[in-house]
Design goal:
This protein is α+β, with helices and mostly antiparallel strands. Helix content is 22%, strand content 31%.
Length: 93
């Protein structure tokens, strides 16, 4: 017997292009309540395509909150990789 089909769905926000990356955040409703967040960060084309998927722990009260969290983490990941290598943070020393 199948579970309630109304509960089997995913909420996907619009993809966001950030330089060479395509960010696709996802909020998935949980049977216990709340929403789980994950995000796909894709780069490259054809056989050189790379897709990093991050799944986050914890639940969010709304799909919008889960999508926001996933998007912010993806943007931080991209920013971290886009920073010039070899430069040190003087405030961090």
């Amino acid at each position: 017997m199948m579970s309630n089909p109304a509960k089997i769905f995913m909420t996907i926000s619009q993809n966001i292009a950030v330089g060479k990356y395509l960010v696709s955040p996802l909020a998935k409703p949980q049977e216990t309540g709340g929403y789980a967040a994950s995000v796909s960060i894709r780069s490259g084309q054809g056989s050189a395509t790379h897709d990093r998927v991050m799944r986050f722990t914890g639940l969010f009260d709304s799909a919008a909150a889960a999508l926001h969290y996933a998007t912010e983490n993806a943007l931080a990941w991209i920013q971290e990789r886009s920073s010039p290598v070899g430069l040190s943070c003087t405030a961090c020393v």
